[in-house]
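User: Can you predict the 3D structure of Protein kinase domain-containing protein? Sequence below.
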Amino acid sequence: MEYGISTAGSFSQDSSQRSVPEVLFQPSELGILERYSIIKEIYKVQLSPTIVSLAAHNDTKQAVIKKSIRKDMLIGQTQHDYARQECIIQAQLKHENVVELYDYTENEKEFVLLMEYCNDAGYFEDKIENRLTPIKNQEKLQQYGFDILTGLSYVHSQGIIHSDLKLQNALLQRPSEDDSQAGELPVVKICDFGLSHLVSETNGKAHMSYRCGTNGYIAPEIKPKDTLIGPEIDMWAFGVMLYEMCTAYKPTNLSNYRYGSGPIPFRDRDWKKHSKHVQDLILQCLQVDPSKRILPEDALQHPWFEQTF
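Assistant: Sure. Here are the predicted structure tokens for Protein kinase domain-containing protein:
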């Protein structure tokens, strides 16, 4: 599970891009924090500016995630701007497949975000990355992919490129026992907009000053500096995620594949139980040429999602 803020990359808006007016950064009074009690710390690393805790509202007992970003550990104005932009962007996103930001505040020491709690947030990281176990249930795999694409389609429709999509940023909310017995499946929600970019209203692109994201998920067209990016970079990352869900390893881990060199290989022994349709969707996501990469709204119409298992 990852609620942390990345330290790679930089905040950049050129004159043609959508700007984030300072007036839109409207933190609540710091007193809102007195309404919550910390239950336990979830994430704290010595060199990270982020502390993540599980908290509960004192009156309603509603569980929330409290994310604190310590200003003294942010490097320069760039990372302060990223933290501020994360609050602004996530406050505007309201969708079932996106983690909701309930409120945020700021003081001289930190930014604090109060977010939706997901009851099995670490599912994908624990199962796939830690225990190296692929998702074998085809119905669940299909639903997880559909949820992520649906959330991503919404994010892109708001003029936002996530820029750091990965398994750790896909959190699982499981239904109640009664709803589960009635056939309701878990819901996947996208989180962590700390490296997001706002696209230009004229060309649908954004300027990435420095390469950012997470190794293994970064699209091959992203250069070390000054890249004009589009929502296609998120679809590359989604393709890696879907590949990982099927196999419990990234395609970039294969010894016979050179990153960004061409078609992704599929090892027969790992794909015997998976549909050819899911392989086709992955291939369309992992096109080296971003102009040939499938986009979320088209991917949601892919034949894989019409299959029954």
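The domain at 123-306 is CATH 1.10.510.10 (Transferase(Phosphotransferase); domain 1). The radius of gyration is 19 Å.
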